[in-house]
């Protein structure tokens, strides 16, 4: 392998730039050429490439977003699209690539590998932490800090007005952000898709906490939770059944994906980039770099996509105890 491509794909996450930097610098260190591919698979199809050397990634370790841009690409889902991408990679002399993204991006890479026997390694980059084969995805830790900071601020106004706040956090299919940030921010209740205990139980819990002397409360709701049809419907339900409370909704949205990465995410990204390039040069392929017990491990990419991440039951228990 003489030339490695690197790109970011799908929803961006803090730490992606640190991972790009690591891949580029590891290539430079090991005297392999490196090419940045802009806008993920879209750029691959359009031949949007730029050679990268160690200096082209100066001063990006601290930056949120991704300097290579990101995109979700429909054309890559077609055989013709993938053929175009392959032809462009060959024209550019790229022998392998590192894909930084989530499960959609890994699925694309896996199919590409099957069709063209093209060597690929994945680095998990998503704030949702919904990838099997790693305890942490890049951006998860930063997003948690962002969410906790936002909820701390909401708490100030909630307690000044004796209000109940429903705060929606990201997590299309999983409740990792909700559960961890909920415990970290001292939420009264945490609603996640993995554990739907129903609306009545929520009401009882809110009543209990009011009776116990709490004047304000914060309920964290994961985006994918189905306790109510949506967070606004949940608000109405609580208002109807519990008129004592003045209820407000705050949807944190895409600000959770931005910001300077935490030290943890920067270190993890740096480690994963080195491991990804080394793995490719050792002839490995179709794997994802992950971290478990603080050791880097490689997981077959199909397992990373298909495997379910487990919600931390202990954390649910801790949250229940803390919200007495
Ligand atoms: O990055 C994952 C995620 O944050 C999900 O939690 C969310 O549903 C989704 O991205 C939204 O992304 P977009 O608006 O870019 O489609």
Q: Key terms for this structure?
A:
binds 6-O-phosphono-beta-D-fructofuranose, seven-stranded mixed sheet, nucleotide-binding, alpha/beta, ATP_PFK, 324 residues, cytoplasm, four-stranded parallel sheet, Phosphofructokinase_dom
Task: Write structural notes for this entry.
With 324 residues, this protein is α/β, with parallel strands linked by helices. The chain is 43% helix and 19% strand. It has helices spanning 16-29, 40-46, 79-92, 103-116, 140-161, 176-184, 199-211, 231-241, 263-281, 301-306, 313-322; strands at residues 3-8, 33-37, 49-52, 96-101, 120-124, 163-169, 189-191, 217-222, 246-251, 287-292, 295-300. Strand 1 (3-8), helix 1 and strand 2 (33-37) form a beta-alpha-beta unit. The termini are far apart. 6-O-phosphono-beta-D-fructofuranose (F6P) binds at residues 11, 126-128, 170-172, 223, 257. 6-O-phosphono-beta-D-fructofuranose binds at residues 11, 126-128, 170-172, 223, 257. Mg(2+) binds at residue 103. Residues 3-280 form the Phosphofructokinase domain. Its EC number is 2.7.1.11. This is ATP-dependent 6-phosphofructokinase.
